[in-house]
Amino acid sequence: MANNSESKGEIHEKIREEIKEPDQYRILLHNDHYTTMEFVVEILRGIFHKTLPEATQIMLDVHKKGRGIVGVYTYDIARTRIDLVDKLSRENEFPLKCTMEKA
Fold this sequence. Notes:
This protein is of the alpha+beta class.
């Protein structure tokens, strides 16, 4: 009987070791000379659910520093949000660039 409970303990420990948190990705918006500040704020509020003060600060970082960090997400969420930014930017004829990097 000792072997049976010992085996269960080993299996439980192996399962616990195999589970890991998903990788996180930082989403960045990049400055250009055509996309309006208002559109960037609209994107940040609509797609990334930022408050007006947060969206304004990120937009100013993009404008002054060349890029701004929007947030950190799992790969699937980051990819989906970047695709939405690209789609809305094209529809509004802006060249807004949105990328991700491993956090």
